[in-house]
Every structure is written in structure tokens, then in C-alpha cells.
Amino acid sequence: xxxxxxxxxxxxxxxxxxxxxxxxxxxxxxxxxxxxxxxxxxxxxxxxxxxxxxxxxxxxxxxxxxxxxxxxxxxxxxxxxxxxxxxxxxxxxxxxxxxxxxxxxxxxxxxxxxxxxxxxxxxxxxxxxxxxxxxxxxxxxxxxxxxxxxxxxxxxxxxxxxxxxxxxxxxxxxxxxxxxxxxxxxxxxxxxxxxxxxxxxxxxxxxxxxxxxxxxxxxxxxxxxxxxxxxxxxxxxxxxxxxxxxxxxxxxxxxxxxxxxxxxxxxxxxxxxxxxxxxxxxxxxxxxxx
Length: 290
Hints:
- By secondary structure, the protein is an alpha/beta fold.
- It has ten helices and eight strands.
- The chain has two domains: 3-171, Nitrogenase molybdenum iron protein domain (Rossmann fold, 3-Layer(aba) Sandwich); 180-285, 3-Layer(aba) Sandwich (Rossmann fold), CATH 3.40.50.1980.
- The relative contact order is 0.12.
- GO terms for molecular function: metal ion binding.
């Protein structure tokens, strides 16, 4: 959807919302005593659900298995954003059409995770568990602002999640301590926050945008850069397939393994399980001491 298209949807949605109110219709988030939260990608949905528990209803605009990059909200999605009690979003370019909606009709209670995504244009802050822990506190604060009588429960939910995330961080730090300085070669350059946290050196084949076609010249440059690093594995995203990772693995005699950026998350998959699987893959695939 173009920016003009997004603004058109906003106009139509505004009329629709007003029409529902005038006719006495129920809004999308009809009052059932729970706080209505809209998240715009899976990691944000996970945090909102863990912090809010049974006190919240969380809708994720990125459907299960869908790609959060460049999400184009349908009119009903725009209506949900406008009507939500709390919106949890990551602004700054991951989802420009959603950014437009939020700018035009800024939610009264908005948690914007943008300050946590401070690596240039890289949005994948959630691959650093301690950054996710920071977000949990912000979500708890905004939920309490809407639903003050349950502020203690939201604080407790955030504390439980933060404790589990600190435990996850400790597992990563212990397991990857012998790997400090190792090269993390990934087809999608989504792992910068993880690499920064645990002392790894990321080299990305396709850059930050997984949809950009890799040129032969770029592939040669990456191969030359990797050749003397001791890298043993090229990591790829299962949803995207082997693609250029297979070419690079063949040329440099590397193994290939899956590393999940936790963007296209299917039904039944969870953040803790995917992060644990990623740690197992890193332990198998990195060149570590000992």
C-alpha cells in the first residue's frame, strides 16, 4: 500500500468508526473487562501477553507465519489500532504504513519500542533478551496507566518475564563465552543485537532486507571476507530457504544451519523456544575455543 493509500484507508476507517458509534454498534474491542492491546509484530505480542496475562486481549497485526517487514494494514487493522486501549509498536521503518497510521491518529496509550532498536536501521532488538526485558517494564507501565486497579498484577507480570529473560541471557552468556570474537555468518543480517551482546562478529550476506536479491559481486565480497575467519557454518532463515546460503556453503565448504530471526513466527512457536533453538544452533555452528 502506498502512503496515499494508507491515508485513504485512514479516512475510510475514520468514517467507519464514527458510523459505528452513531449507530450504537460495538467496536472491535468490545468491553469484556480486559484491556484491548494491539501489537504490530510477534515479539511485541509476546511481551504484551506475558505482562498482561488474563487481564488483556492482544491482537497481533502480523498474522501467524506472516512477514512483519512492510506490513500493510487492512482497513479493519487500522480500525483496531484506532480503537485499542494500548498499542505496542516499533516505529522507524520496519512497517512504514503502520507508522503513518500511528502518526495520523496517535494512540493515547502507545508503547514505541524504537529507543531499544538503536543499531542504525536494524529493528531486531528482540534478539537481545535484556532489551526485551526493558520493553516489559514499559508495557507494564502503560497497561497500569489504562487499568490502574491492576497495576500490581502488571508489575508482577513484567517482573516474571524479566526474570526469565535474565535467565535466558545468562544461558547465552555462559554457552557463548568460549565463542567471543567468532564470526556469525548469516544469510539475513538480522543478528546484530545478539552478536553485540555476546561478543560475536556478524557478517550478513543479504543485508538487513531479506527480500533483496544478492548480486554475484556481493557474494564474492562476502566469500573473500569470510574465507580466513574460521567460520564453519552459514546460518539461514528456514522460511526463506537456503538460497544464497547454499551457494556460499558449497563454495567455502561450510555447514548450513537454521537461525531464526523471530519475525515469521508460526502457530505454536514461542519466543523462548525459538531463542533456545537459536542457542543450540550457535553452539553447533560457531568456531569456539575448547
